[in-house]
Each structure stands twice: as C-alpha cells, then as structure tokens.
Design brief:
Layout lengths: L3 H23 L10 H5 L4 H14 L8 E6 L2 E4 L7 H9 L11 H24 L2 H12 L2 H6 L10 H11 L7 H16 L3 H22 L2 H21 L52 H17 L6 H7 L1 H18 L2 E4 L2 E5 L4 H9 L7 H19 L4 H29 L12 H4 L7 E4 L4 H13 L3 E2 L9 H17 L6 E5 L13 E5 L2 E5 L11
Helix pairs in contact: 1-5, 1-6, 3-19, 5-6, 5-8, 5-16, 6-16, 6-17, 8-10, 9-10, 9-11, 10-11, 10-14, 12-16, 12-17, 13-14, 14-16, 16-17
C-alpha cells in the first residue's frame, strides 16, 4: 500500500513531467505574461475573447456581484463568466492588478498549471489502481497530451482544466464516502465553488461523477441523509459561485436549444486532423468538433491488447453480468461511461455523415439540455474512463514488468501519433506575430484620444470586435458590444437605436467614436457626424479630425 509520501512524490514528479511536456508542446513564450502578440496571432477568436474579458474586468470598478465587467457592453454590465476568462483566476489577478503591468496575460501559466495538475492527479488515479509507480508516471504523460487537451489548449483554454474532471474520480476511488459527513461536505463545497468559477461545464461533469459515487455510498452505507446533505452542499456552493461571479445578473439569455454541438458516434476513432496514423472520419455537421474524443493510436492499441489478454487469460471476465454483480464500483464506472457517452450524443444520434435520430426535448428537458448546448463536451469523462481502464487492465493482467514495456511502447506510439498536431500547434504559437492592431490605431485618432470615452461598434464582426476591444482597453475606453458565451443582443441593438435617435435629436455624443461599414453608413447619415475612412472601416465622430479621408 502506498504511503502519503509515495503519493506526494508521484504527484510532484508527474506534475513536473506535465509542466515539461507543456513547454515542449507549446514553448516558453506563452509564459511571458507581457507577451500578448501570440494571442492575437491565433486564428480562432475565442482565445482573444478570454484575454480581453480579463483586460476589461480588471479595468472595471469593483461591484457586487464581484464578477461584473462594466466596460465591454456599456452601459450594461456583464459577467466575466461569459467571456470564459476563468473567473476565479481573473478575480485573483484583479486583486493584484495595481502591481501588475498594464499588459498582462495569464493564459500561458493557466495552461501549464492545468497540464501539470492533470498529469499529477492522473498519476494518483493510476497509482491507486495499478500500484505501479512507473506505470502511473508513464500513464500521466499520456494524460497530459490527450488529444482533446491539445485541441482546447489556446483555443478554449479554460476547458483544459481537465483535472477538475479527474478529482471526483480520484475522490471516488479513494473511498471518500467513508470519511465523516463534515469532511465530505467540506470537500464538495470547495470543489464545487472552484470548479464552477473556472468553468460550469467542468463543474457539471464533476457533479455527475459525484452522483455515481454517491450511488455507491448509498448502496454500501444504506444511509440517504448524508448523500442528500452532500448534494445540497454541491448545488448550494455552485449557485453561490455563479451568483458571486454575476451569472444571474441582468437580462442574459440563459437557455439555448441543444443540438449540433454533439459528439459523433465515431468520436473515439476520429482524429480530426490530429493523427499521423489514422485518416479523418466525416462528421455529420461542422459543429461536432465540440464532441472531440479521439483516444489516440497508443491508447487504442493498449485497449486492444487488454481485450486480447482478457479473452486469453480470464474467461470469467467474459461474463459481464456475473462480473458486474461481484464488482459494484466497476459496474458504476461502466454506468458512468455509458451515461456520458449518451449525454454527449444527445439529442442527435449521428455516425459519420448519417443522422439516425433526433430526440425531442419537451419542456424542462429542453431547458436542461439547452443550458448545456455543447453536449458533445461530456464525452471527456468517458475518454478519461477509457484511459484509466486501459492502463489499469494492462498493469493487472501483465506481470513481471511486462506491463511496463507495453505501456511504455503504447505511450511512445501515442506521442508519435500526435506529433504532427503538436508540431503544428507549436508552430502556430511561436511563429513571428504581428502586433495587435485595430482600425483605430492611427495617429489622427490617438492624438485626440482624450476627447473620447466610448467606442460604439455598429455592426457584428467578432474579429474586428476583439481588436477594437483591445484598443479600448489600452486607451481606457468602453465598448458597446462584445462576443459572449451568453449574449444580450436585444439590449445592444436597443442601445444602438438610442444612440442613433439621440444623435438625430442633437444629443451630445462627442465622447463617442462610432465604427461603421460601407453597408450601414446610410443608417447614420443625418446624425451630425463627420465620417472618415480609416483602414477597413469608417468612423463617425462629432468633432472633425484632420488628416483622414472623408467618407460621404
């Protein structure tokens, strides 16, 4: 049996391996907190959204709830939760904001810590099940480069905190249910608050895992009250975290219709451009990248070896009903695996390009699944269950260090299979990037910047919106519109109408820079604005600007 010292050593060693792998995969440049050029150089706008949410959150006055941004959709406030800026992390650094440089990003360090913790906690899970230090450390390396981790890193970086999925699994395996009720409630209070204030999806996955562990506790202890009290702690702590971060503030659209963002039934085998060995498989629609659950060639081979070994060696395991009756926890893990697979494909059952079934979502069911419209993400706990099962079965079924050789070979194959994707990601991040630039970055505008307090964007374009939001941050201005996970489009449109009507009445908006395009300038004519061409846009201001070409 491993001692606490053994566990600490394995955790630290595996976390170090995770940190080293992070640097090898993504470089050290992302760890420079003053380096933001790579953020604006990435093709997808989401990482810019996360960074800019933090920028404007730190510049916003302190409010209650504490997670509100007042400068991104002025005059309305929005929660930093809806910019996916890791609210708990953003709050921590906002406390330190007075001593931080004005240009400051934590995305790189967040990615490193997430990778290290995923490796460390993954190793503890494997140590608990395999009792092999080497197998645990080798397996943790595979955890750190899991394909869905590579996919999300510096695209939707918040979701790389996969350790928040692994912690409930570790607590379950460590028989946390045997602890005192006070200890259990405290553990889940802290976990729920941290998880939900990093990303609600990760909290939901962890809460569902707890549900299966609670079922085991209920069956073994035959006591319902402790389970109910833990559930109250989990839900209550999560609601508190959401409330403090402003999730319920204002008129945010909370519920969407689920569908599209699902997992395809081919997800475990579909590399979607990340394999050196296997070809891509077709998807039913372009949104199913959200259900990305490719296992990797090394893990697939390890699973195949495990199955072959079981067939040859352990005939008893071929009787699943009998085996499940004798192994409650195994049964519940399999139930969890099936649950997460089913959740991830709901409500559209697809294989390759074929849509087999669309399940209706009446009433409360539709509202529930609409809250988690990207249901495909729930494939990740199922992926981790397969990872854990693959390494555990190998360690238990191959003795005399044969399992070490097999695991080492499969992990090497995993690295090779993903090497192309790793190299591509490294290149994208570390190539020379152009400095962040917006259409307003001209001396003719910035030399008069003291005139202005607000940037008013009159059209939707996420890329230009991000660039303008960074310009506004650098010069201490507000934005009227931004790209949120949950939007307030109607309020923003209403405010634009108020601006337009106010200008026509002769209201003084001399502190505003109106940003327009050729296709909507007519709506703003006869508003008393001076229009100028500037880069790819047109700006409208009350007071004339010298040195710019007029737009008529």
């Amino acid at each position: 049996m491993e001692t606490k010292r053994d566990k600490l050593q394995i955790f630290l060693a595996s976390a170090f391996i995770g940190a080293a792998l992070f640097i090898a995969c993504y470089g050290v440049g992302v760890l420079d907190v003053t380096n933001v050029d790579w953020i604006f150089g990435m093709a997808d706008p989401d990482i810019k959204q996360h960074f800019l949410g933090w920028c404007h959150y730190r510049e916003s006055p302190w409010t209650f709830p504490i997670g509100l941004i007042s400068t991104l959709s002025y005059p309305y406030k929005m929660s930093v939760l809806y910019t996916d800026s890791m609210p708990l992390v953003a709050f921590f650094f906002k406390l330190l904001s007075p001593v931080l440089p004005h240009t400051f990003q934590y995305l790189g360090w967040y990615g490193l810590v997430s990778t290290a913790l995923t490796g460390g906690i993954g190793a503890l899970i494997l140590l608990r099940l395999t009792h092999s230090r080497i197998a645990a450390m080798l397996g943790s390396a595979a955890f750190c480069i899991a394909p869905h981790m590579l996919q999300r890193m510096f695209y939707h970086t918040t979701l790389t905190a996969q350790w928040l999925i692994l912690i409930p699994i570790l607590l379950w395996l460590n028989d946390t249910w045997k602890k005192s009720l006070k200890e259990k409630c405290l553990i889940w209070l802290v976990y729920s608050f941290v998880a939900v204030t990093i990303h609600p999806y990760l909290f939901a996955m962890g809460a569902f895992i707890w549900g299966f562990s609670a079922l085991e506790e209920l069956i073994r202890s035959k006591k319902l009250i402790p389970v109910i009290l833990q559930a109250i702690c989990i839900v209550g702590s999560a609601l508190l975290g959401l409330w403090l971060m402003g999730a319920f503030y204002g008129e945010v659209e909370q519920v969407y219709i689920a569908g599209g963002y699902t997992a395809n039934l081919n997800t475990f085998l579909n590399p979607i451009g990340k394999s050196m060995i296997f070809p891509d498989l077709p998807l039913q629609n372009g949104l199913q990248y959200e259900g990305y659950g490719y296992l990797g060639a090394g893990i697939l081979l390890l699973i195949l070896i495990d199955i072959t070994r079981i067939i040859i060696k352990n005939k008893k395991a071929l009787h699943p009903v009998r085996y499940c009756k004798e192994h409650l926890r195994f049964t519940l893990f399999m139930a969890a695996f099936i649950f997460f697979c089913a959740f991830s494909v709901f409500p559209e059952i697809t294989l390759n390009t074929k849509l087999f079934l669309t399940i209706s979502q009446p009433g409360v069911i539709g509202d529930f699944f609409g809250t988690f419209r990207s249901t495909g993400r729930f494939i990740w706990p199922a992926v981790w269950i397969l990872y854990i099962g693959a390494f555990t079965l190998c360690a238990r079924n191959f003795k005399n260090n044969a399992h070490i050789v097999i695991i080492f070979a499969c992990v090497l194959l995993q690295f090779y299979d993903l090497s192309g994707a790793i190299a591509e990601k490294y290149s994208d991040i570390n190539k020379e990037h152009r400095k962040a630039h917006s259409d307003l970055d001209y001396d003719e505008v910035t030399s008069k910047i003291e005139r202005y307090k607000h940037v008013v964007m009159t059209y939707d374009d996420n890329i230009e919106m991000n660039n303008l939001a960074y310009f506004a941050y650098r010069y201490g201005l507000t934005m009227n519109n931004f790209y949120y996970a949950r939007g307030i489009e109607e309020l923003i449109a209403l405010q634009l109408e108020k601006y337009n009507e106010g200008l026509r009445r002769g209201d003084d908006y001399s502190d505003c820079i109106f940003v327009l395009k050729e296709n909507n300038i007519d709506e703003w004519k006869n508003c008393g604005l001076n229009f100028y061409y500037i880069d790819n846009s047109i700006i409208g201001v009350k007071e004339p600007l010298d040195g710019l070409e007029k737009a008529e």
